Amino acid sequence: MLLDTPSLYFRAFYGVPDSVTSPDGMPVNAVRGLLDMIATLVRQHSPREIVACMDADWRPAFRVAAIPSYKAHRVASGDQEEVPDTLAPQVPVIEEVLDALGIARVGVGGYEADDVIGTFAIAATTAVDIVTGDRDLFQLVDDDKPCRALYTVRGIRNLQVIDESFVREKYGIPGRAYADFATLRGDPSDGLPGVPGIGEKTAAALITRFGSLPALLAALDEGGTDGFPAGARNRLAAARDYLEVAPAVVRVAHDVPLPDVDVSLPAAPRDPERLVALSRKYGLDSPLNRLLATLG
Questions:
Q1: Does pLDDT of 32 surpass 90?
Q2: Mean pLDDT over residues 81-87, rounded?
Q3: What average pLDDT does range 266-289 have in this prediction?
Q4: Cα separation, 33 vs 162, whole angstroms
Q5: CA angle 2, 134, 162 (to 5 degrees)
Q6: Does residue 269 have a pLDDT over 90?
Q7: What is the DSSP string of the chain?
Q8: What pLDDT is stored for residue 180 in this prediction?
Q9: 135: which DSSP letter?
């Protein structure tokens, strides 16, 4: 089980009132919410291994170099992401608690959590569940492995299972073609422009017709018109420079240098004394007891 941890703690932050605080008054709604999410996930899905994947770099330089608008609207200042004031102090607490529990926490400099997830998923020799609220990770679904996404859009207790058949039915594209489809369509939430004038339906028709973005670009460069909806060929030709660099931004990395970590689901805390201290300081007894009971 690969956790898109930033996606989950943002969801917890907005789903649990910030009136939930530690004994000294610090909001801990994201911390408590995330712990309860992990307990629910472990209880319902019984993973043998689990990794909390982190953003060591939320806006990697290689993506910004390719498309400068990538996540630019979310920059607070410099290279800092705009994060709610009461959430930012909770992230180090989340990291400390995960470490004391013994839940593997992996972030790698220069990469996003998505890239860590992609590298673990591709390298895995067993079934993989990716827990996320980010559609970008639909590109990793693979029925042969199997690798599926557990999508949190309906809540952690009502996860939507995303496999290749879901992708085909929802978007009308081959089950493993989501990244190519998303490159054409774009994603304003990430600052990805897509091809102007190419919406979801046209993007789906193009990917279905040609099978992949490289095959589509080859047909475009050959100068033919077969398979291109009216007007689409000119729009694609005008966006040729974008289409050359966008795949490196949209596709998650598969070659992140992962550290050697024990990803086994812990049956007991790695550092019980530290966990007790954190629980007392931040008022986490209830969610930690629920999680520990599930792990045990």
A1: yes
A2: 93
A3: 98
A4: 23
A5: 70
A6: yes
A7: -EEEHHHHHHHHHHHS-TT-B-TTS-B-HHHHHHHHHHHHHHHHH--SB-EEE--S-SS-HHHHHH-TTTTGGGEEETTEE---TTTTTHHHHHHHHHHHHT-EEE--TT--HHHHHHHHHHH-SS-EEEEES-GGGGGG-BTTTTEEEEEGGG-TTSPEEE-HHHHHHHHSS-TT-HHHHHHHH-BGGGTB---TT--HHHHHHHHHHHSSHHHHHHHHHHT--TTPPTTHHHHHHHTHHHHHHHHHHHSPPS---------BPPSS-SSHHHHHHHHHHHT-HHHHHHHHHHH-
A8: 97
A9: G
Q: Which residues contact 151 (CB under 8 A, 6 or more apart)?
A: 132, 133, 135, 159, 160, 161, 162
Per the prediction, the chain carries an average pLDDT of: 96
Helix (H, G, I), strand (E, B), or coil: what is residue 130?
strand
In angstroms, the CA 174 to CA 141 distance is: 11
Residue 80 has pLDDT above 90, yes or no: no
Tell me how far apart the alpha carbons of residues 92 and 165 are, in angstroms, rounded to a whole number. Answer: 38
Beta carbons of 75 and 59 less than 8 angstroms apart: yes
pLDDT tens, position by position, 192-230: 999 999 999 999 999 999 999 999 999 999 987 888 988
pLDDT at residue 182 greater than cutoff 90: yes
Q: What is the pTM of this model?
A: 0.95
CB 152 within 8 A of CB 7: yes
Q: In angstroms, rounded to a whole number, what is the distance separating the alpha carbons of residues 259 and 62?
A: 21
Quote the pLDDT of residue 267.
Answer: 95
Tokens of 204: 């789906």
Cβ-based neighbour number of residue 265 at 10 Å: 16
Q: Are 177 and 169 in contact (CB under 8 A)?
A: no
| Strand partners of residue 129 | 148
